[in-house]
Amino acid sequence: MDFSLGEELEAVRDLAREIFADRVTPERLREVETSAGRVDEPLWADLVTAGLLAAVLPGQDGGSGLGTAGLCVLLEEQGRCVAPLPLWPALTGALTVAAYGTGAQRSRLLPDLMNGTGRLTVALEEFGAVEPLTPRTAAVADGPGWRLTGVKAVVPAPAGARHVLVTASAGAGPGVFLVASDARGVSWESAETTSHDMSAHLTLHDAPAELVGTPGDGAAAHLVRIASIALAAVQTGVAEGALGHAAGHLREREQFGRPLATFQAVQHQLADCYIDIEAMRVTLWQAVDALAEPFDAAGADRAALVAKWWATEGGLNTVHRIQHVHGGIGVDTDYPVHRHFLWGKQISTTLGGAGADLERLGALLADAAVTS
């Protein structure tokens, strides 16, 4: 299997890396972390101007058609420098609208994302042991529209999001519903996350909504699948960035007259990090490849869960080890590597931790064994 990026994806990677390297400084990160929305809006505008958001969307909607592969390249670069942007929720939502939305929904929502005047977020999680595809939030038909009632937990990056894609249960199965963030029956409760981003708990009380696709048609599964892959991509970048910090730190610091990088115990720690990161990268791109035609939903779900598990388990192990090899300086909350640690912790619990990923993967494998 060839995981080389190709010219278009390499161009996206190089341009994103250049913009992030120029804009994402420790001083800028501190400034954004104390702002109300916790989003670097000027940096978001830079990505819009560079066409990097449009690159992900289909050509029929005005984008470059790079899809999930382009999204993952962009998210890896974001994670590498922990840039405070709502890329994964906005773009996974946009890709779901592009795949399942009506022409009117696509023409209303996607141009706003590409020109920077509006963005989406996604509401996939709920309080308690609730699987993403069996939400307690309920959808009831109301003439040509729908009404939603329920509570969604830790909705990422609500600031600046005009609409929310909400997963909810309808009669025919789980569906994806589009809700205006300021609609009647919608209320928000702000919540700060481990990574210092702002999220919010979303309460829906008979809130008006539009259906994206049809209930049970795979739109909800598509959204959760792409979100899992997107989180794996961000975590891969976070782990790579953390490893880069460790390599620089250990070359410069000395103990007993020798650089710390020459000590075998430290080398073993970084070797384990490298192995985990390579496993994260391979399983990530295997999951992206599983989305290609001919499409097999069960196979794509398995690949996405494998990538998600490696990102959750391997990513968390990596940021823990790298925190450890930095010694006391690693716990300084203003030291750059500490942000990678916090991002790794946050991502490792989003959409469930490693145990939840394994449970879902086991259920899929059991179903495949029964039907074969």
What is the CA-based Rg, rounded? 20 Å
Number of structural domains: 3
What would the CATH topology of the largest domain be? Butyryl-CoA Dehydrogenase, subunit A, domain 3
Number of DSSP strands? 9
The largest sheet, given as strand count, sense and whether it forms a barrel, is: 7 strands, mixed
Mean pLDDT: 93
The CATH architecture of the largest domain can be given as Up-down Bundle
Poorly predicted regions: none
β-sheet strand percentage: 15-25%
Secondary-structure element series: HHHHHHEEEEEEEHEEHHHH
CATH superfamily of the largest domain: Butyryl-CoA Dehydrogenase, subunit A, domain 3
Query: In CATH's first tier, which class of the largest domain applies?
Result: Mainly Alpha
What is the structural class? alpha+beta
What separation lies between the terminal Cα atoms? 25 Å
Can you count the helices? 11
The helix fraction, in percent, is 40-55%
Shape: globular
Cofactor: FAD
Protein name: Acyl-CoA/acyl-ACP dehydrogenase
Family: Belongs to the acyl-CoA dehydrogenase family.
GO molecular function: oxidoreductase activity
Structure commentary:
- This protein is α+β, with helices and mostly antiparallel strands and 372 residues long.
- It folds into 3 domains: 7-119, Acyl-CoA dehydrogenase/oxidase, N-terminal domain (Butyryl-Coa Dehydrogenase, subunit A, domain 1); 122-212, Butyryl-CoA Dehydrogenase, subunit A, domain 2; 219-371, Butyryl-CoA Dehydrogenase, subunit A, domain 3 (Up-down Bundle).
- The protein has helices spanning 7-23, 26-33, 41-50, 67-81, 87-100, 103-115, 219-252, 264-289, 297-325, 336-349, 354-371; strands at 119-123, 138-142, 145-156, 161-170, 173-180, 186-192, 198-212, 254-255, 258-259.
- The strands form 2 sheets. Strands 1, 2, 3, 4, 5, 6 and 7 form a 7-stranded mixed beta sheet that branches.
- Helix 5 runs antiparallel to helix 6.
- The longest helix has 34 residues, at 219-252.
- The radius of gyration is 20 Å and the shape is globular.
- It starts with 6 loop residues before the first helix and ends with a helix.
